[in-house]
């Protein structure tokens, strides 16, 4: 457990407020102490099914006896010893039940059926569920007391110790005590964890090792290794792993086992497999056999994101007939049944095979699903992503319907907080798990989250997924979010508050459509609404409150960097933390601007506005890390909330100056482009107010253009150009922005020579958005690429900001 000791050393400065466990910190909310002198019920994550006060707290002395037998789980014992040593227990003596002990505190660890453990548990109920446990702290009897930790199985023992570490708290005399409670607990879902199934840069070996240790802390029991961009997982699936890669996988398997996590190896052959080929089937089995020798006992054959309307070989046409849904399902069932019968059932200790069907994200009954329902071995576990690929919500009835469609309780692959698709470009997805109905545990075989490319940053959302999967009926998203923040900050009150601000600013959770399933910055949005209401009413305290709000945003990144000891998290979030600090400074200047307006300080207001805009522009220029995600873009922080607030502050300043409001006169205007790639990408998509869709030209023309007719001549002050959301920096670069009172000439060169045209040449698309400052007067605005070669022109949105609008 070197990792344990290393991380605890890093947290030693927080020892007085930190409850330490196998990951270094405990998930205990800062505002709700684990144990109070009055005997308050402690907060434990994941939320136990039954936790009640059973007596007074028990002092943890410097000497403890831990009673074990041959059935005591080794990982649980190691974790317990490390927890005790960190809390100042100098002498931990491990002894057999038949050997008397002299320590003032005795902890009995092992099977809940062991006579001495069962006796010490008293009337604490032992659940009849796999991975369940019972725990009781008793201050009566021998010396200071007894702690009974009994598991239904080895994993239950380990999870019980994870709960025990959260029951420890500092005592008034500087020592440590354990809450006098009785706990009876078990997981609601049999399978709980993650699937590394995203596109883009896979996690590093170090990130995976860290994730597996984290999963033990939060009582996840499943990790599915399925990175799309691992060539030996998908494109080159037939080839054996090189020796160095195989050694890394072996280390991951051992790390997983040490934290009671099932390492599931996934092999995805669907892009090239010949289902009827004995040679391909032998190659697949050989690959699985190599991983079995490493200690893998759980396997998956995903068949997602492939074309199932064509065959990869003519032999499949001869064997299964013409390609189509039914034929594909028959071929896939044949393959999967062969692996289940010929490999899984013939290898000791291997769990039932898992798969991801080609139709994985809907509730439509098709020939494909009918054939799988009828022909696929009932033992095979089928994954389902919900009623959509990225669902806005999942109800119990929908899960029951999906289970009926596949003829078994489905295994939910939830595409959250994954950020490998267009609408998530430039985003960290940090909102707590939500809009999954309590009761799903009865309709699912389990849930795995598909995390972000940023492994450590995913921990906030994953913490809350673990909470839901363990006990969906008692899940509270707000409590779980606080617990996640406390886990990462060592229960530092300032750190918890700062991380909560940061999470709120990264709260948006997109779907494949234009409507997100979690809104951006909901708390900040409410706070700003409250401010504007007070400001409009002339409340003298409104600006004071705004200053405090801006200060909280501006200083949150520095506080997070000072309190979060997970360096990988800080590295993942670095660009977003930098952008947050800049947006916070822009908000500070907004407050100063409004104060200057209130004081009739015209010069001060103008200076504050310039500084505000400069900070906002600097924040908007920060991009996501190149190569980290498949899709990249400007970092998104509180978008639609912070930027809208700054625009309203500018409008207040304009009104003070006696200027008409600055308005987007292009919204829903008459937009055209040189050609349409498809009707769904028509020119009007760039003036509909939605930055999650875009217009696209056909790509067959050199120097393509897009244009909006404003209907009449206006005084343009600024044009904001939003690039296509999913990629790429060079989609719109080396272009001209033109404003004219008359229709443009047919060629770019002619238009640029027209003395009536005001033009701006932009060589980079590097902001959020690219802002072109004019002034210019005109009716027509055109974006014109300079490229002499045929290219597409992609635009998410064009905003033309003008004043003289009636």
UniProtKB/TrEMBL annotation:
Name used for this protein in its record: Beta-N-acetylglucosaminidase with F5/8 type C domain
GO molecular function, one term: metal ion binding
Active site: 305 (proton donor)
Keyword Protein biosynthesis: no
F5/8 type C domain span: 651-803
Highest rank taxon of the organism: Bacteria
Keywords for the protein's UniProt record, in alphabetical order: Calcium, Disulfide bond, Glycosidase, Hydrolase, Metal-binding, Signal
Family to which the UniProt record says this protein belongs: Belongs to the glycosyl hydrolase 84 family.
First and last residue of the signal peptide: 1-22
GO annotation terms (biological process): carbohydrate derivative metabolic process; carbohydrate metabolic process
UniProt domain GH84: residue ranges: 190-473
Keyword Transferase: no
